[in-house]
């Protein structure tokens, strides 16, 4: 297939482009800077200059492709506090892609998040069937995790309009060499604070996946996911955050420390609202559906390799 990819120069995208080309697909990638364009061309992709705000570009690129993978999200403005603007831009892009692909039967794969699966009882392991209650087809500004969840629902609803749509839910710890996301951010805070913090007893669990395994799942979704599929890119079902903090402490030669939920922001910055969340998740349905099996190291093994601390 000839595939159009947004966010191709980002963390997942840098693994996805070679995954697609190695499988025989060709890639056109959206690039909003000359640096990104150079990186993508070096990886073997064609380049369409623009951003996800350039809706005419998105529409034309989707119409001329055999499928679309949408990874881009305005994390910069979301982390700066304007999450509503980021989710609104994401929604506009998804709607534009949906209009271009309606009635074609072409695949449309969108990245989503597992921590956005809300409302589960304490200790429950999230599955691909959770978080699918109707949130309504809301127009206009939407905010918070519910906003991105609504965008995922809109994507899935496109299956009723002749689009082979699917979403891939990513864990907060999507790790690997070169990651500058949640794990590397937490390490930076631990180094600056001189302590590796966990909340309470640190037994709360995060799901995780190696970036390369996640990239392979996006390819499999593009190739064969049934319309309306919810997929989980989960390698480790749940890693206790205390174990993560202990690896930080060993590599940085600092102590571990238990903090209250109220103190978490002092030790892990903007991650404070997530650091104590218990959110294990399963990928058994995904594995059975697509034959996907993670093969790369789990989170603790990857952290112990040391590249996060170089």
Put the structure in a nutshell.
The chain is of the alpha/beta class and 310 residues long.
Structure description:
This protein is 41% helix and 19% strand. It is built from 13 helices and twelve strands. A seven-stranded parallel β-sheet has the order 3-2-1-4-5-6-10, with helices on both faces. Strand 5, helix 6 and strand 6 form a beta-alpha-beta unit. Helix 1 crosses helix 8. The radius of gyration is 19 Å and the shape is globular. The N and C termini lie far apart (39 Å). About 4% of the residues have low confidence.
Structural features:
12 strands; 310 residues; 41% helix; 13 helices; alpha/beta; 7-stranded parallel beta sheet; 3-stranded mixed beta sheet; single chain; globular
Shape: globular
Oligomer state of the chains in this structure: single chain
List low-pLDDT spans.
134-144
> Kindly, what is the distance between the CA atoms of the first and last residues, rounded to a whole number of angstroms?
39 Å
Number of helices in the DSSP assignment: 13
Rg result: 19 Å
Helix content: 40-55%
Class by alpha and beta content: alpha/beta
Count the E strands: 12
Strand content: 15-25%
Could you describe the largest sheet, including whether it forms a barrel? 7 strands, parallel
Q: How are strands sequenced across the largest beta sheet?
A: 3-2-1-4-5-6-10
The arrangement of helices and strands along the chain is: EHEHEHEHHEHEEHEEHEEHEHHHH
What is the mean predicted local confidence, pLDDT?
Answer: 93
